[in-house]
Amino acid sequence: MTTRILTGITTTGTPHLGNYAGAIRPAIRASQQPGADSFYFLADYHALIKCDDPLRIQRSRLEIAATWLAGGLDPDKVTFYRQSDIPEIPELTWLLTCVAAKGLLNRAHAYKASVDKNLEAGEDPDAGVTMGLFSYPVLMAADILMFNANKVPVGRDQIQHVEMARDIGQRFNHLFGQGKDFFALPEAVIEESVATLPGLDGRKMSKSYDNTIPLFTSAKDMKDAISRIVTDSRAPGEAKDPDNSHLFTLYQAFATPEQCSEFREELLQGLGWGDAKQRLFQLLDGQLAEKREYYHQLIARPADLEDILLAGAAKARKIATPFLEQLREAVGLRSFRTSVQANTEVKKKAAKSARFVSFRDEDGSFRFRLLAADGEQLLLSRSFADGKSAGAVSKQLQQGGEADVRVEGLGFGLWLNGEQVADGPQFDSAEARDSAIESLREALAPQQD
Ligand code: TRP
User: Fold this and answer.
1) How far apart are CA 284 and CA 268, in angstroms?
2) What whole-number distance in Å separates Cα of residue 226 and Cα of residue 200?
3) In terms of residue numbers, what domain contains 435?
4) Is residue 309 included in any domain, yes or no?
5) What is the whole-number distance in angstroms between the Cα of residue 124 and the centre of ligand 1?
6) pTM to 2 decimals?
7) One digit per residue, pLDDT tens: the chain, 449 residues?
8) In the chain, how many domains are there?
């Protein structure tokens, strides 16, 4: 069973060590797991909300793209793209904007923080607040829902946004899904152990605190930053307290458990802070030197990076384009060519004559097929250990249970209560697949008369 993982990274800065340990590295690792289907993208539309410096946006997109690839992201295995190369995303943003409650967005932390600041300063509550900032969570919901992501790895500050994406997606499903779910509801995933690295001064590592350790700029920059890590004033020979040392916390985020306990022991034994910093540098450099070199090679070939990202966008749009077509259809943005009346007549007929056929597989397991009126196979179920569970699933489907269709390449799967229960056939074009999905939806739609 595949889990779709999706995350975006806002292109306003140069990634630092904290971004790497907290977001990039866990995302790359997750993409290497069997069964992972990962979507990673540069959230450059989001960047425009926070930054009106074109050169900085441009530079940051390049650096972030190079960082992810140098960090080990395999663009053939994952879908890696720029948000702004997918025109379906702003279009979906609008469809979602039309169902998102303003009251929901009023509660977004980032917006509320701006309002609170204004009130404190005696200003108009919305002073300096753009519509971009206010609707930030809707754009993010479109990023996530466009690809039916199941898991969204994010920092803690983004959990609320993922929850809003669920709310907005649910509302759209409810209004337009007619018993089916267009959107899978995403879940935020936080990597507990390293979600936030401390910076040089012990506060969260962040550009806004100016306390970051650079990632790939140069070994020297990294070393210089490490030398500025704030420690207590205990002299060499005096026992250090690893649990109250953010230098140790940084070390932990990159070391094996054995390396950690060794380092802890040495600190307890009085290792000097200067030597401790040297250890940290060696640990980091050992893991990052090769990647750093690859990073600089990539930055030197921006046209190649462009090609990689455009190929990623094409891959993403294979999904986004037909899916958005379904969504437009659902809200009523339909072609005048297809008469609504005639359409419903035909479909009702098809729906009436679609039938479930159960059978026993060679291996003794139980399955069923859903056949259209003309005998065309719409679905083949997964294997069930006994006839009863197979029957229960087909019954739920017949009764219009909460099933959703998820496109997978030129095929599709049918999901019920968070589990894949059946597969559609493989098609040789996206059009053929989408029209089969359409027939399937009709066949499963609760019948009105
Ligand atoms: N808002 C996220 C951040 O600042 C970036 C982002 C944009 C994102 N779209 C997303 C993250 C979709 C996850 C999913 O960190």
Assistant:
1) 22
2) 7
3) 352-444
4) no
5) 28
6) 0.73
7) 688 999 999 999 899 999 999 889 988 998 999 989 999 999 999 999 999 999 999 999 999 999 999 999 999 999 999 999 999 999 999 999 999 999 999 999 999 999 999 999 999 999 999 999 999 999 999 999 999 999 998 888 899 999 999 999 999 999 999 888 999 999 999 866 655 799 999 999 998 899 999 999 999 999 999 999 999 999 999 999 999 999 999 999 999 999 999 999 999 999 999 999 999 999 999 999 999 999 999 999 999 999 999 999 999 999 999 999 999 999 999 999 875 554 555 555 555 567 888 888 888 889 998 888 777 788 999 999 988 888 888 888 887 777 888 998 899 999 988 889 999 998 888 888 988 888 888 888 765 54
8) 2
The token duo for 290 is: 């090769």
Distance of alpha carbon 387 from the chain centroid: 37
**Cα–Cα distance between 6 and 23 in angstroms, integer?**
12
315 token code pair: 């891959």
**201: which 2 tokens?**
């001064």
Q: Which of 143, 145, 162, 166 to mutate to test the pocket of ligand 1 (most atoms within 8 A of CB)?
A: 143
Q: Please indicate, yes or no, whether residues 282 and 357 belong to a single structural domain of this protein.
A: no
Please report, as a single letter, which amino acid is at residue 169: G
Residue in the structure block whose two tokens are 């020297």: 220
User: Is 414 contained in some domain?
Assistant: yes
Distance 416 CA to ligand 1 centre (A): 28
Domain boundary among 247, 271, 290: 290
Asked whether residue 10 is domain-assigned, the answer is: no
We report the CATH number of the domain holding residue 240 as: 1.10.240.10
Nearest alpha carbon, ligand 1 atom 6: 8
The reply to whether 387 falls in a domain is yes
Contact 145, 169 (CB under 8 A): yes
Question: Do 361 and 281 share a structural domain?
Answer: no
Nearest ligand 1 atom to alpha carbon 153:
13
What's the CA-to-centroid distance between 153 and ligand 1, angstroms? 9
Pocket lined around ligand 1, Cβ cut-off 6 Å: 6-8, 10, 43, 46, 140, 143-144, 152, 154-155, 158
